[in-house]
Amino acid sequence: KAPPAAAAAAAAAPRKVRTQARRPLPFNPIFCRLRPEGPGPFSEFTDSSMDGEEYEEDIYEEDITKLLDGKSVMLKLEGAALAEVELERLRLCRDQIVDYIGRDANLSIGAQVGCYCAASLQRVESELLAAGAKIRLPGAAEDVELVLVEVCADSRYFAAKLLQIEVWVSLLKEGASVDGNVLQQARVGFAIVFKRAAIQYDPLSIANLNSLNNVAELIEEGRLLTAFCEEVPPVVAKELMQRQHEREMQLKELEEQLQRQQEAAEQLKPRQQERAAQLEELMKQLMQRQQKTEMQLQKVQQQLAEILAILHQSHS
């Protein structure tokens, strides 16, 4: 039996799957570190150049979201749910990913989308290139109208981001919506933007190795884009801030215009009420005049009738 829609939207509740906090990963050429001496294992996560604790991850995600003119949304299944067999498949994928990245993790494969862009993959790629990003896997599909973006400040979790996209596609196939609007799965593209460059990876091999069937299909269809963007350059960040400031000023101007219109409407109300009262009084006077005129006409007609009667008698 399928779980409630709310549970389905979260796809699979987070759970502990390993007790070992950190352990070395064996060397795997499809997902490994790039060192000066060549590819190698991630080792014990001790290299500060790969550590995610020396930068503000939230700021990085916010900068990328602003760069792509995106927003945070929630994918929802209204009155529906993922089948239990699909939920179990996603849980197994999650367990494989935890084994694959080599550390304990409560991987929440929920339906929160950090960066939702009403754009084509080509426009997203163009915005990233303008910010100095390097495109690792271009999104070739030209029929994409919306792009769901995963921002991955620590590239060691690149495989986990593929898992997140796997869940999103499953939800879209069941009619997931954003703000009440059902998204057409065929028109949705996906992107992963990560901060650390020192990795070597093969997305299709990772997807196939970890049973990420949806992701493999996306790659084959050209609907997944991946890019390395170390940071949003100060010049671009300044431009984004300026763009945001201009939008805020435009919004403020619109609000002020609305306020002025409302105030003008309030000022017109007494005049309108006065004019309405004057019109009502004029109508009342006209009615009274009409009634008086009709009474006078009746009186004149009566007098004429009496005169005609007298004249008739005199002739007879």
First-residue to last-residue Cα separation: 112 Å
In angstroms, what is the radius of gyration?
Answer: 36 Å
Count of alpha and pi helical runs: 8
Overall, the morphology is: elongated
How do the helices and strands follow one another from N- to C-terminus?
HEEHEHEHEEHEEEEHHEH
Count all strands and give the number. 11
- The side-by-side strand order for the widest beta sheet comes to 3-4-6-9-11-5
Descriptive notes:
The chain is of the alpha+beta class and 316 residues long. It has helices spanning 5-10, 57-67, 84-101, 121-130, 158-173, 203-209, 213-221, 234-315; strands at residues 31-35, 38-40, 71-74, 112-117, 134-137, 146-152, 177-178, 181-182, 188-194, 199-201, 224-228. A six-stranded mixed sheet has the order 3-4-6-9-11-5, sandwiched between helices. A three-stranded antiparallel sheet has the order 2-1-10. A two-stranded antiparallel ribbon has the order 7-8. A hairpin with a 2-residue loop joins strand 7 and strand 8 (181-182). Helix 3 packs antiparallel against helix 5 and helix 6 runs antiparallel to helix 7.
Outline the secondary-structure elements.
Blueprint (H helix, E strand, L loop, with lengths): L4 H6 L20 E5 L2 E3 L16 H11 L3 E4 L9 H18 L10 E6 L3 H10 L3 E4 L8 E7 L5 H16 L3 E2 L2 E2 L5 E7 L4 E3 L1 H7 L3 H9 L2 E5 L5 H82 L1
Helix pairs in contact: 3-5, 6-7
